[in-house]
Amino acid sequence: MTVDNSEFFAGLPADKWTPIEHNLRKALLKACASNNNQFPLIEWIDRRIGGEVETRRTEDGFYEILLRDNGNDDGDEGGVIGGGAGKETLRGATKEEFFSSLSPDEFAPPEEALREAIFEFLATWSSPELATLQQLSNFPKVQKARGQFLPKGVSLKDWIEHRVGGEIEFRRGNKPGVEVIHLTPEAQSVVMHKFQQISSQPIMPPMGMPP
Fold first, then answer.
1. How far apart are CA 142 and CA 140, in angstroms?
2. HSE-up (13 A, CA, CB side) for residue 11
3. Taking 80 as the threshold, does the pLDDT of residue 207 lie above it?
4. CB of 98 within 8 A of CB of 78?
């Protein structure tokens, strides 16, 4: 996803810093000076306050930073209800009203697409360490599916806990602010099936090469 920040920068004064910019600059300079004039900001966010703030790499190579607990925690694209007016309201609908509008017996097509994207991430996870909520959130297919389905104010974690909590659980990781993913026995069989499904797919030759 490419992010256009031109409107944000156009709204900043050209001849001075805003109070927030001033404080941010001061904090960044101080942080760099404390660590041999360099500071791993993105990694620090992921490791130290990843439960509150999400970092996401865009298609053009930059990073965007989003609060997990506000209306931007799962992307800036609208969902099935649409653009929201605040943290809890989505054109008059609350988070509870959003979930109550979903069928208790089946997934709607965009909801099923989100679940499939999540299990594809889990099926392709190859690290010996447990995957984290942050890593799941950054998986491109999950980003796309949640952006097409979840309204602002409803996080990916909210949806998982409400709709697939019998398959996927979150537990506190070894690092502060990090939540790791645990699979129930039911989910483990789903992941194995998904892995076999992916492994059986033919490998497409590079573009320009004969099949």
1. 5
2. 5
3. no
4. no
